[in-house]
Amino acid sequence: MKQPARDFRVLNTVSDFTQHFGFPNPAHPLLTVIDLEKTRHLNQPTGAALRQLYIISLKKNLKGQMQYGRSSYDFNEGVLAFYAPGQLCEGNSSIDVSEISGWMLVFHPDLLGKYPLGKKITTYGFFSYQVHEALHLSDREEQALATLLSGIRLECEQSIDAFSQDVLVSQLEVLMSYANRFYHRQFLTRRPAEHDLLSGFEALLTTYFAQEDEQPLPTVQYFADTLNVSPAYLSDMLRTLTGQNTQQHIHHALIEKAKRLLMSTSLTINETAFQLGFEYPQYFSRLFKSKTGLTPAAFRFSMQ
User: Between 2.60.40.10, 3.30.70.100, 3.40.50.300, 2.60.120.280, what CATH number should domain 8-189 receive?
Assistant: First the structure.
């Protein structure tokens, strides 16, 4: 039976967002900074809302746990979360916000439209995590962001002039750069969790390519789903710890298995491609040559 369409409210503007949650009206049409301590008395709205906005939030002193992606976190300490436009949120009545503190930065994509940051922001992995792997901040990092946020808050409360948008976007870009630094620090210092994930990925990759039967080409999504993380998080973690993203690791393992097949079996080049999961042998040949400098046939000949 066809499921009924889900009912939710679409929040297209910063004003839509503040009205929906009962927050103060924004001083700037495209950006607002919300002091969460001043929202303790507000009741969370029921129902789902689709937010067509960028949101960065630092929430502290919540009672209970909130779900971000496939993990839940408590918020006694600084935890930073990022949301991109098009993500659906739903109120959680089990969370006690009577002592909440922190801040929320909300801005519309149009603010960045004519600037390089409008394109660059799509490359930040923390906005594409599956709502989300959270960023845990040290006290020093939290203070650095608070200082940046004070400047943004001050600017968006000024009268708008010809320089307002330039200044706001410049400040946002600095904040993004700090967030990017902190995320990569987290990959390096908040481990063993990430090193356990790396070990799990390497074991899974080895097991997959050790199979003798014909298998479909593995995807980044397959490894991310199996490891219970998002594709973006997995690639960021691998790139930080190993210098290569998930797809590069897959290609390396694939080429190593291809070499073994070419050296140890009498399979034709086409049969080798099919054994590895390629639908089109010519794609296998192109990939092999791009990674080794030789065609599969030339590699086999050189090994004889």
Answer: 2.60.120.280
